[in-house]
Write the structure tokens for this entry.
Amino acid sequence: MENFDQTLIALIQNLNFAPESFYLIFRSTYKEAFKKFKDHILNNPCREFFKAVQLFDPKFITLTSNRDILSYSTFITEFANPSLDLIQEWVIYCNFDLSLIEYSNLEEFWQKVSHNHLPLLSQIALDYIWTPISSCSVERSFSVYNNILGEDRENLSQYSLRMLNTLYFNRM
């Protein structure tokens, strides 16, 4: 009961239930959710990759102490042998004053800085920020391919397959 917020206790009581009866339900639900988190998130083979991709969030880069571009090169291959221009953009990005630009999402930020400030880095970032964060979207795309490339369509050219895929995902 000590972890229940007063608002939650009031809500439960307003519905004429005893808060104590919900404690076991919430506790078991929390335990199950935490077990899933531990089993699936903490042990996800892509976890380190997704942690590296966080660097394309300008809020993250201002908070992190790791600003060594080469330390991200294991997952961001474009950083493995950066050009002088890319290193200069990296320095600008790491010290970017976020109050200078207004944005509501990462794509908007990188689009806005792509022309004047960070053309090379934004090109890289715009590829990585679209990486799916779960296997669900990847599995869905395989399912779509199975529907497009059925037994009766095994001889489609790569171009035709690409066009059918584009049509399907754009709902045309």
Residues 14 and 68 are 54 Å apart (CA to CA). The two ends are 54 Å apart (CA to CA). The mean pLDDT is 84.
